[in-house]
Design a protein that fits this description.
Layout lengths: L2 H20 L6 H13 L20
Helix pairs in contact: 1-2
């Protein structure tokens, strides 16, 4: 796996785990609020082929 692919996959996995944690009873939501933006910003560019060729993340939906 390419280094960027591994970083992207790991970060997406961490974001998913954080979302699951946030839904648990007794979760520390201050922690979730502090960590989630940092994880989201740290996402590298998606590996080639992850998104459809005609997608534009900057385009308003």
């Amino acid at each position: 796996m390419c280094p960027d692919c591994e970083d992207f996959t790991r970060t997406v996995l961490l974001l998913g785990q954080l979302a699951l944690y946030a839904d648990m009873a007794g979760a520390d939501l201050d922690f979730v609020d502090a960590v989630s933006p940092s994880l989201a910003v740290s996402l590298p560019e998606p590996p080639p082929g992850t998104l459809p060729d005609d997608s534009d993340p900057a385009e308003d939906s």
